Amino acid sequence: MCFLLLSAVAKSVVIVIDPGHGGIENKGACTAISQDVVKLARKALQNTQSAKSLHSGHSVDKPGQFLQIQQYELIEELLVKLEETSMLDEADLNMVVAKIMQQILVNYIDPRNECVKVYLTHDGNSETSLTLDNRVEQAKNMNASILISIHFNSSNDHGRQGGFVIVPYVVCDLMYFGFSLPQFTQNGIIGYVCKKVATKIINEWRKVGLCINSDFGFHGEKVLCSDGKYMRLSTDGELYDDGHLTDYYRILKCGMKLGVPVILLEACYLSNFEDLLFLLCQNGIAKIALANVTAIADCFKLKYKPKVNSI
């Protein structure tokens, strides 16, 4: 039943990844990074690149263990910028994770033995003008099985730590999980897909050592669905056609209106020192990207079949 529900969203598996922020109208947060941390990050990357499995420059037989050389080059470029500016731009980080995910996912096939289609909503061009609505419209036009928006968090409260996934309200509304197979509804399918993928991502994050946030608040508005999954409803009274309050986050709201499953990942807090060390000094960027891929592959029953030439 799980696969039937997931496959009902699209004829073939289409994964659309949105590198959060980016473009002239959507700037992300910047976090100051000490050069001591940057040096530790450089050393950690060098140690990882020297692993035996990377000597040949090819991916290992089993996915989810190591990255290919060109994917580590994306992290290398990020470190070079950190060495020059001592500032970590969330938009740059989102793009690195999104590109790594795309480069790995194109090496998978779906249960129909068709190559998985993987798209990014934008390429990181600083002159790009792309609204959140535009990103969801792209996913709709691509017949997306799911749209995953990549983000990293930041807070004035430096004690806030860990990753979580923001989901549309239907994930938290149990009324949508009591339907039988012939009674598919658009909201029911969206709720099931988003719940399945979000839950699996959180589980994979935990496996690679990422702390999971279970206390994300909105000044009394918090609604915790379950372990690491959150929703937030509109505060202006706007309603969906079914009379339910809309989702607070525009990308989720637009997804609900257009019939596209959308989840928003907040992988960790750049403002928290422990999260930052995990990210930069414990190969956290690669671990998060690989965990996301593993979760997606499991949910959509994808099989790893590396191509001779990937993206």
Textual characterization of the structure:
The strands form three sheets. A seven-stranded mixed sheet has the order 5-1-6-10-7-9-8, with helices on both faces. It is an alpha/beta fold. The two termini are 33 Å apart. Helices cover 39% and strands 15% of the residues.
Q: Assign the structural class, choosing from mainly alpha, mainly beta, alpha/beta, alpha+beta, or little secondary structure.
A: alpha/beta
**Sheet bearing the most strands, described?**
7 strands, mixed
Q: Runs with pLDDT <50, length 5+?
A: 3-10, 52-61, 174-183
N-C termini distance: 33 Å
Helix tally equals 9
Strand order, biggest sheet?
A: 5-1-6-10-7-9-8
Strand content: 5-15%
Radius of gyration: 19 Å
What helical percentage do the residues reach? 25-40%
Instruction: Indicate the overall shape.
Output: globular
The helix/strand order is HEEHHEHEEHEEHEEHEHHE
Question: Which whole number gives the mean pLDDT?
Answer: 83
- Give the tally of β-strands: 11
Notable characteristics:
alpha/beta, disordered N terminus, 11 strands, two-stranded antiparallel ribbon, seven-stranded mixed sheet, 311 residues, globular, 9 helices
